[in-house]
């Protein structure tokens, strides 16, 4: 497929590189890139659960055929989980009831890119999203932000109108997508490590998309938001999957306790969320879910949703519009960057990716000048 390497049907070599990328997203642990201050508590909970699991495993080691029982139960739980996910995918709106996504959040993202945007239009919507108002208030009252206030005022600000005025529209176009997309990640301890990588991938795409939009004199805040929103489906599928698995596991544990079967109870308790088994389905279906969920909430005509749908339904990069191609280029650069960090991408493979996604020399130079180490919005 040499003839189609530039933008045409995706060659097997590109597929192999991208599969390698998605595999490294779920492998290992990334301890350095915490999502927020509450993650120290989440790490402690994950550690506590691991200690409890180890204790249950030691009890089971004393019983014959314990490992075989664990494997059988794990396979049954995984089969049930995949069946539940299949049902949800046939009716995407089912994901909404178990996710952190709401129509108010999507309305806010759409308002941010309105040419007639002003704080008076934003404020009532933000007021209805309580946690977002609190996060923005925390920003304004942080020491670093207070130092930038007029006359270095150290007065604590609580009024939302003042909070938004201090931040300003330009910063809100960055902060709001950042906090909304972070909110979509599940707090499940079983997803702690993969969430960190998924979030970092999202941030790298956002930085790259913003830089490319600035280079091409496009609305950079819009493309930043689209790049973050691209991970909506993956965040939701991960969270819903982990939640469904835990519901199944807890149900089986209660039944085992009722039957006073301690061996069965311990065996179920050590079954872990089968990330490796559900990941192929998530990698395959999550991008489509990123536009299907907003569409089901009435946002099918939003610019971001149109671009995400195009990325799903268009066969090759060559046929993408310039807007969708920019997001695809940003994702390409982010994938290459993360693979290079773990020494899983050669120079020739990187050049192959750049060529397929049609990254120009000028674009690569602009992207290489960005600070991808600083991914925090503030």
Q: What is the helix content?
A: 55-70%
Number of strands: 0
- Count of domains: 1
Largest sheet, in brief, is: none
User: Which percent range describes the beta-strand content?
Assistant: under 5%
Could you list the spans in which at least 5 consecutive residues all have pLDDT below 50? none
Specify the number of helices. Answer: 18
Tell me the structural class: mainly alpha
Distance between the termini: 45 Å
Mean pLDDT across every amino acid position? 89
Order of helices and strands: HHHHHHHHHHHHHHHHHH
Kindly provide the radius of gyration, computed on alpha-carbon positions and rounded to a whole number of angstroms: 23 Å
General shape: globular
Pfam family, one: HDOD
Domain HDOD: 107-260
InterPro entries: HDOD (IPR013976)
Organism: Shewanella mangrovi
What does this structure look like?
By secondary structure, the chain is mainly α. The chain has one domain. 69% of the residues lie in helices and 0% in strands. It is built from 18 helices and no strands. α10 (192-215) packs across α16.
């Amino acid at each position: 497929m040499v003839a189609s390497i530039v933008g045409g049907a995706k060659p097997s070599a590109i597929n192999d590189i991208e599969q390698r990328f998605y595999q490294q997203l779920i492998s290992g642990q990334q301890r350095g890139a915490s999502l927020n201050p509450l993650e120290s508590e989440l790490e402690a909970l994950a550690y506590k659960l691991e200690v409890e699991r180890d204790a249950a495993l030691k009890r089971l080691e004393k019983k014959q055929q314990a490992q075989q029982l664990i494997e059988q139960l794990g396979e049954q739980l995984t089969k049930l989980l995949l069946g539940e996910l299949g049902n949800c995918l046939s009716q995407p709106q089912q994901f909404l009831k178990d996710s952190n996504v709401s129509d108010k959040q999507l309305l806010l993202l759409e308002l941010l890119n309105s040419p007639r945007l002003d704080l008076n239009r934003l404020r009532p919507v933000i007021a209805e999203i309580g946690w977002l108002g609190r996060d923005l208030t925390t920003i304004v009252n942080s020491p670093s932000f207070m130092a930038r206030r007029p006359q270095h005022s150290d007065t604590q600000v609580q009024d939302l109108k003042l909070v938004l005025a201090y931040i300003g529209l330009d910063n809100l176009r960055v902060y709001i997508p950042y906090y909304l997309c972070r909110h979509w990640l599940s707090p499940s301890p079983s997803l702690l490590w993969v969430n960190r990588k998924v979030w970092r991938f999202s941030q790298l795409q956002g930085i790259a998309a913003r830089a490319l939009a600035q280079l091409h004199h496009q609305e950079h805040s819009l493309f930043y938001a689209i790049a973050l929103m691209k991970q909506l489906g993956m965040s939701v599928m991960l969270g819903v999957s982990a939640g469904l698995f835990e519901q199944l596991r807890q149900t089986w544990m209660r039944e085992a306790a009722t039957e006073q079967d301690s061996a069965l109870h311990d065996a179920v308790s050590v079954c872990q969320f089968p990330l490796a088994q559900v990941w192929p389905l998530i990698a395959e279906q999550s991008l489509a879910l990123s536009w299907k969920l907003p569409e089901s909430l009435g946002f099918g005509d939003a610019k971001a949703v149109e671009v995400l749908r195009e990325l799903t339904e268009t066969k090759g990069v060559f046929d993408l519009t310039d807007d969708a191609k920019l997001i695809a280029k940003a994702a390409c650069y982010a994938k290459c960057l993360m693979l290079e960090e773990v020494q899983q991408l050669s120079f020739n493979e990187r050049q192959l990716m750049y060529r397929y996604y049609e990254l120009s020399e000028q674009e690569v130079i602009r992207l290489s000048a960005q600070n991808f180490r600083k991914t925090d919005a503030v």
